[in-house]
Design goal:
The protein is of the alpha+beta class. The protein is built from 3 helices and 4 strands; from the N terminus they run βαββαβα. It has a single domain, classed as 2-Layer Sandwich (Alpha-Beta Plaits), CATH 3.30.70.120.
């Protein structure tokens, strides 16, 4: 089985809660760690923008990535939300087993 970490940014606490609750209630992720204050600097509409955001770090199985992406897009206020996936190459056997047993 392949496990993943999915990173999502959101504009504020309310959006983070909505996304987190959706992902957990639908058993698409086992855990969401929320970093409450990050500063993002990025290109949008041909100019450099700066924004305060939150970062969500989600743990799941690779087979859930498309469903995670679809759920985030339905619940995210951004037109193009950041949703990136990193494969977990290795990890604690107990932790990976916990992920396996807590998601669909």
């Amino acid at each position: 089985m392949q496990y993943i970490t999915v990173v999502i940014t959101s504009p504020d606490k309310e959006a983070s809660k909505k996304i987190t609750d959706c992902l957990l209630k639908n058993k698409l992720v086992s855990c969401v760690s929320i970093i409450p204050a990050i500063k993002s600097v990025y290109w949008w509409n041909n100019k450099i923008n700066r924004a305060k955001e939150q970062m969500l770090i989600c743990k799941s199985k690779k087979t859930n990535f498309k469903k995670i992406t679809d759920a985030v897009k339905k619940n995210h206020p951004y037109k193009v939300p950041e949703i990136v996936c990193f494969e977990i190459k290795d990890g604690s056997k107990d932790y990976l087993e916990w992920i396996k047993n807590t998601v669909l």
